């Protein structure tokens, strides 16, 4: 893996001065993923926080080629870019190796963009899709998404007198990607930067469709102090709320096994989106969440052991 | 020239083969268009160099077209009806980004009810998305229009996406005589695409599709409006050049016995063939009947059409779709608006016909003429060929 020193001299894909919130996690995700590529990159982004905060005309924070089309079609759009590249390679109009990266939030990936993503993965385009997953539609005021975890308070499924936030579990998109039999799928989180950079490097070393689902705490939607993004991110992995693992050609590898698995309440209590769960009448929900996490963790370890 | 017998779909697929685009992305929604199936066989047989993306929806087809065109590729797609409807979200993005994507569009009714047969409701609903729209009367025009579309869309003064349409089944599946131009001549005619910008230009990185708020959005819509104006000149230039090279004449519209006509119909697409027969019969019985067949609907040649129709006694505008505005179909409202400033305005009425593939025949068109000869005695908007 490239050292921090090596990464620091590579071309930064994003300039400073973009308009992401203080403490936002995705600029780091973008930097770590893009810096992991030794070859030039072309980036496509779905509509969302990333696109909105980095490309307010007449300014652009991008130092690399960047295309935004619409909300649900980053994967299909990048399919087209990659197809054009292949056509030009064939005709001798281009020779340089280029890595193609799509970034989409969880709304643009888990929900409205799922079909486009699935299609691109099935067709086998040579691209990396990175979901910066902050578990709700943060760009448009914290609406619930398919990635929102059980119990979380959102504006479209708020905690109230009779409802305790989101009723359902989050969709397991990483496993859906694994089921596409793509050569590489992984889960990472922004706080474990070395793990994320290594996974991105590995992704760039493989041909074909690749997917990384990166958990990104959002200070606005998760409601915590801006300086806590990295620690909360690590807590998500340390509690096994967000296990860090990769699946290379069907082979599972858990890349972080906490020495001591922390109880989920440590993660939940770090953010106000779960505050209502700590009302004594909601204790059963906390127990359920812990049970589900334990079950999923054991299931993952069993897959790795196979 | 090579004389062959082809359906509209085959003719468009042949034109696509000769154009040999860098990228084609398409999806067979119901109703699926055969054009892409024929083209896929060309890909499988190595007759084209195209990177063909068999996407999972028309939404992704147009999205992939935007991606590929942003990378500088010459890009084509084909669709129809619901497929075009599924593309609607991305169509104005393609024009705003000034991407000269070329689409073969087979006009078919929009659901519901689900129908699959010809009318213009799909294409008409896409008229305000910044795409050039060209209608074809027959297989020959579909082929010729598609070749010209490359030159029109990619002209530096235009740089807009373009859809060339045929009428579902009537043209798309009807076999007709087609004069094809030889492959090498087409190749020379359309030339190489030379994009000014490419997303693949690593040395000169560009940000494409930036967020425009209140302070720039309007300014970025104006160039599309200007490009549409320029497209009028370019369409005529390309048409003249095509005529010089290949002998067939193309402008904004075709006039059929119009100049001395007292009564005229305005028609788009395949029904104009039927109208010609009706006009011939009426002329034989002494009625001064004529037709203006619109080829280019976007940009709309309002001034030119107004000049042609001014002074006529009565005009019937035939619409193969309705606007549900209670005051006329989309072609009618354009024509009526175009004639507003004319000194010698004809009486203008609207005849909505042929929805969902309902046939239109010579007798019905003769009846339309009969109706408008009784100036002022028919309602402004009429629906013909429909059971009450």
Distance between the termini of chain B: 49 Å
Count of individual helical segments of chain A? 12
Number of domains of chain B: 2
- Low-confidence parts of chain B lasting 5 or more residues at pLDDT below 50? none
Class derived from helix and strand content of chain B? alpha/beta
Rg of chain B (C-alpha, Å): 21 Å
Oligomerization state: heterodimer
Mean of residue pLDDT values of chain B: 97
User: What share of residues of chain B is helical?
Assistant: 25-40%
CATH fold field value of chain A: Rossmann fold
Distance between the termini of chain A: 27 Å
CATH architecture heading of chain A: 3-Layer(aba) Sandwich
Describe this structure in words.
The complex is a heterodimer of chains A (306) and B (388). By secondary structure, chain A is an alpha/beta fold. Chain A is 38% helix and 13% strand. In chain A, strand 7 and strand 8 form a beta hairpin. In chain A, helix 2 packs across helix 8 and helix 4 packs parallel to helix 6 (114-123). Chain B folds into 2 domains: 2-246, Rossmann fold, CATH 3.40.50.970; 253-383, Rossmann fold, CATH 3.40.50.920. Chain B contains 13 helices and 16 strands. In chain B, helix 12 (330-338) links the parallel strand 14 (314-319) and strand 15. In chain B, helix 10 crosses helix 13 and helix 11 (302-309) crosses helix 12. Chain B starts with a strand and ends in a 5-residue tail after the last strand. The mean pLDDT of chain B is 97. The A-B interface holds A 40, 42, 44, 51-52, 55-58, 60, 62-70, 72-73, 76-88, 90-91, 94, 96, 98, 115-116, 118-119, 122-123 and B 22-23, 25, 49-51, 53-57, 59-61, 63-73, 75, 89-90, 93, 199-202, 205-213, 216, 220. Strand 2 of chain A pairs parallel with strand 9 (207-208) of chain B.
